[in-house]
Amino acid sequence: MLHKIFQPFFTTKPTGQGTGLGLSLSYDIVKAYSGKLDVKTEGDNGTQFILELPAD
After folding, report:
1. In this structure, are strands 47-52 and 36-41 parallel, antiparallel, or unpaired?
2. What is the pLDDT of residues 11-40, one digit of tens each?
3. Which of 10, 14, 23, 55 has its CA 20 to 30 A from that of 34?
4. Which domain holds residue 47?
C-alpha cells in the first residue's frame, strides 16, 4: 500500500468516511515549492513523514 499513499482518492477508510485527498494535496503543495514529502514505516513500530522545503 505504501506506493499508493500519495495518489488521489486512495484511502484505507470505509466508503463515505474519507476522500483520500489529504496526502495527495499535501504532496502537490510541497512539490510546488520545490520540496520533498517522503514516508518511512517500520511495520508496527510507527510511521514517519519527512517534509523538506528549500531555504529560499
Report:
1. antiparallel
2. 888 888 888 899 999 999 999 999 999 999
3. 10
4. 2-52
